[in-house]
Write a structure and sequence with these properties.
Its main location: membrane. The chain has helices at about 1-30, 30-55, 65-100, 100-115, 120-135, 145-150, 155-175, 180, 185-205, 220-250, 250-255, 260-270, 280-295. With about 300 residues, it is mostly helical.
Length: about 300
Amino acid sequence: MSLLATSAALGASTCWAFGSIVATEPSRRLGTFAVTRLQLIVAAPVLVTLVSAGTGWASVNFDAWPSILLSALVGVLLGNLALMACLKRGGPRRMQLLLSLSPLTTMFLSWIYLAETISLFQLIACLLTLSGIAIAVGMRGAKGSAASIDGVSGSIASVIFFGTVAAFCQGFGLIVLKPVMEAGTEPLVASYLRTGLAAIVIFFAGLLPLETLRPSTSLTPRLLFQAVVPGLLGYVVAVSLLLYGISIYHSGVVAVLGATAPVIMLPLLWLLGTRDLPPPAWVGAALTVTGTGVLLLLQ
């Protein structure tokens, strides 16, 4: 079961790595709210179709609706608004660096809320993995054709603020859902319920006559594609994989492995033109791989 959880978490990281790069342009041109609203409204019907195609509805425990609602409002809606704001201002690499704080939040909350504990060696391996992530993505900014993707637009303080808020919200949203899944609700169904609720809220919020909620520019087919694909990869595939991993294994360990997107992102940025990645990037990647390997050996 632990190997399945590990594979699910790493699969989620791969989806987020690709999606973060693709979503950078629409988040900057359309705006944070517009992209988040579009992604949620498109992802929710896809999830409900997948759930309806199986027998997932029978697993739902509606007595747990307060936890599902909390996960939707905090983990999905608030968390992803903060995430898009961080991506818009700091680019995908810095966003993923700050989002790597999420496993620490998840680990702490799982200890407080779920009474989950991990061994000393697991903790060391987790810290090794997170250190590798920090070193890998804490390198100097990208050059070449990737600079427009990886540059800073706005103050570093705002990037740090929104990234930290996103990390906490994501960790909180995952933890409050674990008891729901342990009670029998399938991960895909849990993913739909929280995404669907968030989509309803943000849909009606978008009807308010507020200029700040309008897209910053006209929606073109290219921008639509760049906004929707990361949404499907994130809300449908990545979140479902991560929830599955958390439902069968330690929340903190799964969250750490689910935060390896920045390292997976390095070769993608290299292909986009960042061909002069400094040695710290590869040192960080090596530490992350080592930490991940230790976690696998300890299972």
